């Protein structure tokens, strides 16, 4: 699945910030501030479009590397993410390369345009679901996941349920392409059972890896979803309103 010809080349997140792979939290913070100051769109009036994209890339790099859990996962999958979408046999067997979407370069802006955040990720998760549906038995009812929605979709009217579904995703696909051996080549029943056992183990490993990648991608996307930011601000404001009401009630009570 391609995001279009205009997609920026994926760069290593350490390269984006100009730091070494063993950079400390302080190193990352200093590098981010320096790069952000240089490439902030407000500082690049003559080159706003490019600056906006580079600033987004810088922000994404710092967001990932400043989070110990995200950084550890990125470090262990860095080559796959940078290589994402190269059309290898493994990707073809699975039906979709998800690693290419762990990058801010695969979308442009936060609108509903074809190359925007919402269209790109809506299509990704729709494809994941289509692959799941494709392996279901004919006549089986397909329980579709909640809708990803669009840029203006209120958080509680779809997106919250969508992320809950995919952050707990469990594939129903067989992952038969992970089989190491062909049971039909076994010379006897004992070896055939051993082969089937090995194949089952390999399929399970493939399923677990795919589940983990889908869940990680859902969390990655949610963290960058502007609708969640708006919802969190609304929730924080609601908490403040409730506190103010409690304080007013206490003052009235104490004044009696």
TrEMBL record:
Residues 223-240 have a biased composition (Basic and acidic residues). Gene3D superfamilies: DnaJ domain. Residues 223-256 are annotated as: Disordered. InterPro entries: Chaperone_stress_response (IPR051964), DnaJ_domain (IPR001623), J_dom_sf (IPR036869), ZUO1-like_ZHD (IPR054076). GO terms for molecular function: zinc ion binding. Residues 241-256 have a biased composition (Basic residues). Residues 12-78 form the J domain. GO terms for cellular component: cytoplasm. It holds the Pfam family DnaJ. The keyword Nucleotide-binding does not apply. It comes from the Eukaryota. The keyword Metal-binding applies. Keywords: Metal-binding, Zinc, Zinc-finger. This is J domain-containing protein. It comes from Guillardia theta (strain CCMP2712).
């Amino acid at each position: 699945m391609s995001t279009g010809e205009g997609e920026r080349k994926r760069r290593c997140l350490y390269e984006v910030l100009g730091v070494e792979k063993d950079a400390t939290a302080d190193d990352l913070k200093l590098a981010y501030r320096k790069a952000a100051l240089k490439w902030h769109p407000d500082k690049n009036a003559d080159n706003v479009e490019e600056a906006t994209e580079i600033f987004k890339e810088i922000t994404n790099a710092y967001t990932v590397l400043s989070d110990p859990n995200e950084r550890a996962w990125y470090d262990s999958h860095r080559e796959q993410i940078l290589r994402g979408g190269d059309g290898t046999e493994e990707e073809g067997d699975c039906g979709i390369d998800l690693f290419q979407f762990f990058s801010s370069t695969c979308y442009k802006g936060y609108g509903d345009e074809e190359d925007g955040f919402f269209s790109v990720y809506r299509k990704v998760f729709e494809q994941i679901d289509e692959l799941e549906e494709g392996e279901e038995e004919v006549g089986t009812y397909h329980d579709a996941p909640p809708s990803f929605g669009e840029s203006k979709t209120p958080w509680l009217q779809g997106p919250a349920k969508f992320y809950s579904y995919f952050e707990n995703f469990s594939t129903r696909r067989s992952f038969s392409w992970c089989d190491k051996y062909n049971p039909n080549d076994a010379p006897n029943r004992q070896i055939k059972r051993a082969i089937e056992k090995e194949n089952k183990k390999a399929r399970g490993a493939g399923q677990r890896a795919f589940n983990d990648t889908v869940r990680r991608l859902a969390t990655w996307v949610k963290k960058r979803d502007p609708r969640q930011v708006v919802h969190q601000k609304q929730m924080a404001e609601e908490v403040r309103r409730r506190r103010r009401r409690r304080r007013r009630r206490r003052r009235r009570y104490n004044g009696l």
